[in-house]
User: What shape does this take?
Amino acid sequence: MTQDFLKYINLADARLGSKAIYVTDDWFADVNRMLQPEAPVWKEGVFDDNGKWMDGWESRRKRFEGYDYTIIRLGVPGVIKGVDIDTCHFTGNFPPSASLEACFCPDGDPSDAQQWHEILPAVSLQGNSQHLHSISDDRPWTHLRFNIYPDGGVARLRVYGLPHRDWSAQNADEQVDLAASLNGGRALACSDEHFGTMSNILNPGRGVNMGDGWETARRRTPGNDWVIVALGHPGEIERIVVDTLHFKGNYPDSCSIQAAFVKGGTDEQIETQSLFWKELLPSQKLEMHQEHEFTEQIAALGPVTHVRLNIFPDGGVSRLRLFGKVTNTDR
Assistant: This one.
């Protein structure tokens, strides 16, 4: 079974604004724990007023017919490519099966009369396991209905896909962060992500700590580290922000950015091609724990679709912002 969908962003991540707006029952564990970005943890011997503390969503044992479900509003509408139903630490209390439905309600939350579309038929679950399922559906969705049969606990629900945005409504004279995950930007590849994942640099807001950024291991060989980002839409970059918030003794000494308008090919080809992209931002000195804004230093390359952030020689970056104006061109 292919797991290529794991390269996309988790649309159900609470950091993007995803939130459960309804749940039939979450007696033992709050349903919104299931949407947290951190790996689930086990707390030995920890109990609250309702029972054993669990890191995920857990309902009571059902003593009547039916099943439990929750409705989740995605922080950003998106096309779903795959799902990970993670029952980590749930052993004698996991659901035997689960399914996923979706709807598109861009103007508000669904009503009781909402028609739901099944995108993942009921699948069997095991305890303390990840269940990866690809989804072949190109329609965008705003809400999910996650069903567990009949009850039990799920540690994490991760829904991987591509954010959806109606770019035809975008004001051509307005600057927008073309790299933001909420606008469809995604990290494709990097040299190393030992301490923090590359996709973190595109998340909304400023980082909450060092773990909410991209950090490489200490480089002991010649060269430098890098990350490649696909923009959510082609555009001309006019303002760049490189934020090293929380990185103090481990920030990069300097950075540069290359860029190109890439047409055709696959994500896997990008890495080699990026070596020859033109310089969008020449090498710039960085400081610890602060935002660095660049405007006048940016080269006029015209519309681009991809960038490569180079950091010298290694270290951590909290956020990368690439503000520009969208362009409607096929080049």
Q: What stands out?
A: The mean pLDDT is 93.
